[in-house]
Design a protein that fits this description.
Bound molecules: D-xylitol-5-phosphate, zinc ion
Distance between the termini: 8 Å
CATH superfamily: Aldolase class I
CATH class: Alpha Beta
Number of strands: 8
Order of helices and strands: EHEHEHEHEEHEHEHH
Shape: globular
Number of domains: 1
Number of helices: 8
Oligomer: single chain
Radius of gyration: 16 Å
Strand order of the largest sheet: 1-8-7-6-5-4-3-2
Length: 216
């Protein structure tokens, strides 16, 4: 069954712990935490202190999506704060293999994210070292954007590559996902759906999570 990872980017930050509890009780599988630095993407969100504050408030695994320059400089702080999965962007480092190996050596699951225009070839030689691939289906930086339809093809291409090698790497898809397009994204090969605005802007987040999971 597909997993759902609500993104707290669209949550009410004045009562973040309650917002997290709500999606946990609503059936979320992971908590997607978007970290933005105002350099790699044109927006600023949160850092390790917020993550460590949340750690005692939920038992959901923390899926930390780093949209920052120089991720190697900060990755340990995010691990210490309580990240369970740390996903870094291919475009943000020239030493991707070193970085994912470092994350793995720390006992944390490494993920690698690709912007919409970044080809799948860029991760060809690190496929043995990662836990998930995050396919960005919007240009990173903001919640509430429209899903880029072309990304369905990218997801199915990646699914084919992984199946050929019997790989257990998970495909996570992030950006513009809602109840109307989720089934196509799952059909293309997604294992984890990230959804921010579709869940948190709804008056009934629990129902949206349930519907996303039923979209098979
Ligand atoms: C975008 C973030 C996403 C975002 C998704 O840069 O990485 O995780 O929160 O939000 P929606 O679901 O609203 O597109
Ligand atoms: Zn994200």
């Amino acid at each position: 069954m597909v997993k759902v990872a609500p993104s707290i980017l669209s949550a009410d930050f004045s009562c973040l712990a309650e917002e997290v509890k709500r999606v946990e009780q609503g059936g979320a599988d992971l908590l997607h935490i978007d970290v933005m630095d105002g350099h790699f993407v044109p927006n600023i969100t949160l850092g390790p202190p917020v993550i460590s504050c949340l750690k005692g408030k939920t038992s959901l695994p923390f899926d930390v999506h780093l949209m920052i320059d120089n991720p190697e400089k900060y990755v340990d702080e995010f691990i210490e704060a309580g990240a369970d999965i740390v996903t870094v962007h291919v475009e943000s480092t020239v030493h991707l293999h070193r970085l994912v190996t470092h994350i793995k050596d720390k006992g944390i699951k490494p993920g690698v994210a690709l912007n919409p225009s970044t080809p799948l070839d860029t991760i060809k030689y690190i496929l043995d070292d990662i836990y998930l691939v995050l396919i960005m289906s919007v240009n990173p930086g903001f919640g509430g954007q429209k899903f880029i339809p072309r990304m369905l093809h990218k997801i199915s291409e990646l699914r084919a590559i992984l199946s050929q090698s019997n790989s257990e790497i998970l495909i996570e898809v992030d950006g513009g996902i809602n109840e109307n397009n989720a089934s196509k994204i799952i059909d293309a090969g997604a294992d984890i759906l990230v959804a921010g605005s579709a869940i948190y802007n709804s008056s009934n987040p629990e129902k949206v999570i349930k519907k996303l999971k039923e979209c098979i």
